[in-house]
Amino acid sequence: MIAASGRLHFARDEPKVRLTMDDMFPSWTARDITRDLLKRFLLPVPEGRQVVKASMCVVGGQGCGKSVFFEWLAGLVRDRYGESRVHIIYTDDIRVAIRMIDDSPVQLLIIDDAMTWASSRQVFKQTDILADYNRSRHVFEGRLRGRPGVILYCWGWQRFGELDPAFRQSDVLVFKSGISEKTERAKIQEFVGPVYMSYLWKIWDRISRGDNAAKNTSVGVIASLPQARGVGIFRSAFAEGILPPMVKHEDVFTDDEEQDAGPDVGGGPSGDAPDGAQTPDQAAPETPKGPDTIRRARRDPAWARRIRVWDYRQAHPRMTNKAMAKNLGESPSYVANAIRQVRSLMGDGPPPEDPPENGP
């Protein structure tokens, strides 16, 4: 009894502590990973002859603000590397992007709704897009001719569940909207976790209610970091007039070319052309069809490049191919092939003999 009364007396003398819900469950603050994610994506231009690449996958349904995001990203890349050093390509087909790659040290390839023009034979495996994705770096290295460069890929997708694992494992991912379909939602949650999945739904609800400011908030993932550190809020901003007009698949490919422009254009994992295959500069041109062939051909970046050589030849008829190649930044073999192909397109017959090497 004495011991019991002693314990009771001790309890009566203890100060009373009142616990609230905030004490037991402190308010949760989302991690902002904007700076870290951009640092992982916007790689510095390397030294020497190296070419580095980084990829971003942007996932969201219709109306989530992907186009606004691409506009902001293009301005960010331009400011980061310098406008004169950046070539921005905006398209819906990776094959179009490959044709448009030039010799600028920084290439930003924005491929929006990339599944739209995947080959119907490989639409679920996406092997055609993967082959062209691997090949694009090889093409860029050829354009640079030994100089260093950075190639940045930004893929726009609507359905995360349809993605090949190679794209799900992009260097960084940006989720812009919640997805109602159960299996799709489960796949996204594997990457972001349940807490940020709930946050993503809140963002999508605000967007669907007409809150355009919510389009600047996304859930980002840095693939190389564990989920506890690599998942968080990613913030962008509004920008206008920076993104070039989209060059669409149908602006470049004819119906006949569409049948032949599937996965066979790529090579192995390194992007090299298969044994015996032609490189992009050696391949036979895709002849435009229609009345005014030259006018139509100029719309195609590959043909526009050949016609540029042709126009230079017309202005300097006595200049050798070697001298032209040096002035234009092309190889002598490309210059010779381009002149021959444009003459064939125009129906002017075989090309004349190349002027002697001691010409102007």
* CATH fold-level topology of the largest domain: Rossmann fold
Class based on secondary structure composition and strand pairing: alpha/beta
Count the helices. How many? 15
Radius of gyration equals 28 Å
CA distance, first residue to last residue: 118 Å
Strand composition percent: 5-15%
Helix content: 40-55%
How many independent structural domains?
A: 2
Shape: elongated
Oligomer: single chain
Number of strands: 7
Q: Secondary-structure element order, as H and E?
A: HHHEHEHEHEHEHEHEHHHHHH
Nearest-integer average pLDDT: 76
Tell me the major beta sheet. 7 strands, mixed
List low-confidence stretches: 118-125, 256-291, 349-360
CATH hierarchy class name of the largest domain: Alpha Beta
| Order of the strands making up the biggest sheet | 2-3-4-1-5-6-7
* CATH architect. name of the largest domain: 3-Layer(aba) Sandwich
Written description of the protein model:
The structure is a single chain. The protein has 15 helices and seven strands. The chain has 360 residues and is of the alpha/beta class. Strands 2-3-4-1-5-6-7 form a seven-stranded mixed β-sheet, sandwiched between helices. The termini are far apart.
